[in-house]
Amino acid sequence: MELESEKLTKQYLTRFHPYNNFEKFKTNGTRLSSNSRKVFLLKYNKTVVLRKFIFTQKYTSSDFTNDIKQYRKVELCESILKFFAIVKQNVNEVIFIHEYACDGTLRQYLKQNFNKINWNDKLRLAKQLISAVKCLHDIDLIHLNMNSEKVFVHKGDIKIYALQHQNVFNKFKYIQYIDPQYLQNFETYKLNKSSDVYSIGVLLWEISSGNIPFKSESAYSFNLLNAIIHGKREDIVLGTPKEYIKIYTECWQHDSNQRPTIQQVFNVINNIKYNNIINKEEIFEECDKKITNKGKILSDKLLSDLNTTDLFKHYNNLYDKTAKELELISLLITSLKKYLNDDNSVNNQNNLNKEDISINQDDLNDDGLFNNQNKLLNLISSLQSSLVDINEQIEDNKEQKFLYNLNQFFITQFNIQGGTLKDTISSIVYCLKKYIDDNNKNPEEILNEYYNYKYRSYFMSIIGFFHEYGIGTTINYHKAYDMYKKASEDYYYIVVDSSDNLLAKNLLKENQFIGLISLGLLYIDGRGVTVNQQEALKLFLKSVSKGSSLGKFYVGYCYFHGLGVIKNVSYSFDWFLESALEGNAKAQNNVGYCYEFGEGISKDNEKALQWYIKSAEHGNYQAYNNIGYCYQNGIGTLINKSLAFEWYMKSAEGGDSLGQNNLGYCYQYGIGTSVNKNKAFEWYSKSAENGNNLGQNNLGYCYLHGTGTSINENKAFEWYLKSAEGGNYSAQNNVGGCYFNSIGVPADEKKAFEWYFKSAEGGNTIGYNNLGCCYRDGIGTLINEKLAFECFTKSAIGGDSLGQNNLGHCYQYGIGTSINEREACEWYSKSAEGGNILGEENLAYMRNIAFYSYWYWN
Prior knowledge:
Radius of gyration: 34 Å
Strand content: 5-15%
Strand order of the largest sheet: 1-5-6-4-3-2
Low-confidence stretches: 1-5, 291-377, 851-858
Number of helices: 38
């Protein structure tokens, strides 16, 4: 048999080589997997993959020969990995040599490059993927195991591996990509071309999102498998072309007869243009349709000719905990209550013990809640009872009333100030701490009381907030994440949705809103969790679907900064405006910002001021600061420095770190008030301690120059460095100056150059000037007069008077450019107009030279 197989192999392969006749491998290469290595072969002048095959009863040499025969039929397809040769080592072992994909698997490529590619790139990848599978199907070859670990990328282009028998190994490793009909009945159902099409649909979604399908769930979970069988699919990604969504949703239909052929997919995908993209309203419509359809299916199946006992048994067989979510679980409870009210066997519900409203996740596993009728009845009773209890306890217990009032204050401030963004968090923390201090309470004791509170589920978000910002405890992002996660879960809200208790409903609703938004912000910043911008966007959208106006602001925020979605300031403005019209103060402030700077809407300073005032009327401290800035600079109104000072004061007293910095600036330079350097130092200190990098930079200045405090070069350097590390370009220049002049730190010209370079990269004109000096004089780097000239030019054009003087110097003496005395005079003149003494002296010198030259020749 083996001899016959070898004969067939040689008959079909002109690239079959005995081991002794083939190029010896100089090195072992780089290990890619247990049976493959990457090496460079001189014979092909390429980096290739050596893949070892050991023949067994499961995979014989005949299987291998048949695979190679099929491979030869498709190897001319550009999206198939090129086959180079086969090297026979012994009777039962060969090495298959094929093209190496330098960008790794599709999964690796998307992880590393998703933020760099646009929709034209995504469509190109999709077309190449479908073209490759079409090549296989055209010769009746089925891939059998399409997933993003089995698809490769070489120099930005898709490549797939086409040895069919090898593809079937480990096919259950990634169940997200497998035909659900096969998952449902893998003993009798045969994988087919339609199965590949299903996998294509999932891969098209992955290309659109950059994420592994159901990334947050275990790929080996029975619950995930069961949910996929019963129709669970990933959510649509904002900004995706509608035709693209339509074709991949058709591909991942459960019924293989409803899926398109690969030719139909090929035709559609090649005609898609990135213009007709899905918008937010259509996303919500799609979500509603999805929920409604699932709810109808579930309710019809549950309520059709079932008694109460059958209901539990049927539900347990039909759905796992993954599908018990959102409106579906609420629908189930409503149905149960209807049956329970009519069932004479359940007469003693009111005598059941009241338990903590918190539900252990274990209660929702396959052997838990829905296998145990009594436990579910207990849960319903407990939840209903707690709605009454919360009212009674707040009214009767002074301490618990304080906990409730503090939570309400927190909810209000969170919504008004706009959550925990870096530019707003100082206000919320300040207000919360002040509220606690004003009531003579100990934050540590408060946190313990929240933990010990019988129904602490109502307060998960504020507990998470205490952990995130170290109120009454040390900062612990992981605990904050856990608490926000619990607050965001839907199973806390099963019975409440159908309750008439407005207090309990509002408590839990706001608790969930804050949990979802705070969880999203942790994903954006990578605190307590790996950065995942798309997960953050999904959480914000979920909060919107549940009615959060602040959630709409955060969807706009994602569009504004390109977080988890392609940046689109027009969409961003639409989201901000929608939230603002619903009365959200943070969104109103941002609508004002959009009008002031023309972001997503035509610039209109008067409307900017109007929106800032609306936001301020609702208590947003950032808006107070922005109104102050408008009055200081005459934006949408006449300049009025006294009013500017007053608004900055209101903002600063509310804990806004930028307002505190600007109030310090007013005191330092006498804007709308008399100069008071001690107060300037005081407000810069507050701003700096609240994390504002402008305040930190200005505090460094105070310590360096003794403004409102004694000179302390060490502290000056410390605050400059904090500000610089926070991204302040002026502070980065100042840190460079500290290293150059040995201020609070030993002199280090190389580090000075590095910080000047960072500052210049950020566009700081003084940083450009200092970087130019480094290149001109060889400070921390090699002398490069051309680069020096370029830096001085950028600094001068940006308006820095010293940069203008140095650019004049370059033109006067031909440094990095040709000598041009006319240009030198012009730049010295601009420098002098800016008040630079060196510019004035050099301009005078040039004019004297011109005068004596004229006198001499005449």
